[in-house]
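Tokens as discussed.
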């Protein structure tokens, strides 16, 4: 355990107390059978660890922007909390930019990356002064036009793909030879094209790569950053001045889903980078990082009531209210995204007793809607609660509207002297009226007004 308590003991204790308090205070119960919980203390700790890790390896005075990848947890109160912790935002769509602005993030704290930016999005970003990384030559053409037609304060760069290879999960590997992201650096002529792009455009001052994510070993991530740094050095040498003044190393630090421990830590990654790429930290380059999952995943918990406990073919099955709508990746690709499940009794107290191999099922109407299959846990009974851990990123904030299941309420929590645990609403549970409205409720008769010629 290091100075930040990375063994995760404090985290597990806070989580258990929050589950009990959520039941006691009525956030969870028969009529509100699922919630998402966010550990505010843990989020602040991770933000502090991130800042400290890079402060330790960078030369004094180096400008560093940690931009949280909004797609990991697109919730305005989370972005505001991170802003208070000195963390900016990396956005990849008009929606994410709107969330960052609603949270009060300034253009200087915001970076826009996305593989499909429209001319209007680019124009707005440049008008606001938000940093933009061009994904490809066609996008750079568009930016050329905008830069010619109006002055912009936006720091501008190009995203490259060092093609260092993928990890154990294809869908989250961004640096494969055929990845859709950035300029594929090892393709014939690509490196020279990038160098020329900078030679021809004195206003291009940044270089970006994101070679994560989950399933990628640290050494491969460090290699991606090393190749990006080497390219920046080559470009600045060819130009004869330090035109590239900032390197955006992306995010992608993997998360440990097997226990409460934080592993790897930001400190380990920062030290691995300093080892692999010492020149990156000697003060000649400003840094941007774009961590998502590693900042939030371990601070979120889905808690769902067991509506029914049954048995089928000799297997115990707990039918809960958490399934594909809140744990989409786990349900569809269980081999790559297993989640830890803990069992609580009807009062929200950790359940003990002999472990029984059981399925923890969700509420959706298809057979594969399982949070966990054949998992050994204290036997879940009707009225108990099952919690899916480490779900603060890419889970309950990423609702999937299968079966028109409502988005659950999300609550942040901190320990509290008077009440044990204090909650604040991050997102209200979705109402049925909202489900109807999002499902074309305002256009109920629309299709009956359409008739093909001659049909009536
Ligand atoms: C998704 C993404 C990130 C964040 O990745 P994590 O694995 O959540 O840290 C950062 N940068 C870009 C460009 C991304 O697409």
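Sequence:
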């Amino acid at each position: 355990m290091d100075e930040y308590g990375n063994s995760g003991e404090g985290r597990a204790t806070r989580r258990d107390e929050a589950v009990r308090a959520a039941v006691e205070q009525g956030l969870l119960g028969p009529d509100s059978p699922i919630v998402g919980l966010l550990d505010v203390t843990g989020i602040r700790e991770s933000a502090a660890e991130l800042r400290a890790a890079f402060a330790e390896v960078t030369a004094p005075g180096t400008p560093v922007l940690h931009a949280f990848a909004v797609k990991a947890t697109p919730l305005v109160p989370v972005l505001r909390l991170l802003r208070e912790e000195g963390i900016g935002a990396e956005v990849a769509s008009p929606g994410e930019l709107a969330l960052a602005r609603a949270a009060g993030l300034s253009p200087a704290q915001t970076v826009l990356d996305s593989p499909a930016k429209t001319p209007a999005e680019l124009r707005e970003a440049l008008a606001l002064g938000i940093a933009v990384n061009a994904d490809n030559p066609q996008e750079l053409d568009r930016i050329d036009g905008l830069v010619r037609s109006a002055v912009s304060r936006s720091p501008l760069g190009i995203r490259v793909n060092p093609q260092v290879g993928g990890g154990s999960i294809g869908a989250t590997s961004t640096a494969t030879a055929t990845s859709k992201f950035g300029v594929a650096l090892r393709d014939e002529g690509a490196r020279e094209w990038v160098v020329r792009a900078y030679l021809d455009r004195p206003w291009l001052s940044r270089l970006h790569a994101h070679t994560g994510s989950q399933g990628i070993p640290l050494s491969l991530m460090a290699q991606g950053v090393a190749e990006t740094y080497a390219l920046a050095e080559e470009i600045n040498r060819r130009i004869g001045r330090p035109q590239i003044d900032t390197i955006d190393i992306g995010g992608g630090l993997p998360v440990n889903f097997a226990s409460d421990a934080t592993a790897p830590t930001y400190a380990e990654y920062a030290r691995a980078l300093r080892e692999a790429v010492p020149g990156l930290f000697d003060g000649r380059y400003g840094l941007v990082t774009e961590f998502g999952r590693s900042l939030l995943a371990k601070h979120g918990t889905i808690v769902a009531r067991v509506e029914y406990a049954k048995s089928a073919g000799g297997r115990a099955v707990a039918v809960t209210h958490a399934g594909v709508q809140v744990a989409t990746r786990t349900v569809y690709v269980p081999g790559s995204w297993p989640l830890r499940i803990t069992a609580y009794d009807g009062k929200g107290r950790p359940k003990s007793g002999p472990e029984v191999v059981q399925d923890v099922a969700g509420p959706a109407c298809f057979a594969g809607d399982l949070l966990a299959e054949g998992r050994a846990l204290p036997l879940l009974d009707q009225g108990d609660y099952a919690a899916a851990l480490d779900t603060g990123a890419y889970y309950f904030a990423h609702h999937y509207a299968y079966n028109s299941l409502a988005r659950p309420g999300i609550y942040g929590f901190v320990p509290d002297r008077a009440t044990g645990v204090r909650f604040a609403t991050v997102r209200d549970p979705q109402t049925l009226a909202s489900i109807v409205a999002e499902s074309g409720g305002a256009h109920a008769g629309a299709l009956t007004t359409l008739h093909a010629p001659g049909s009536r």
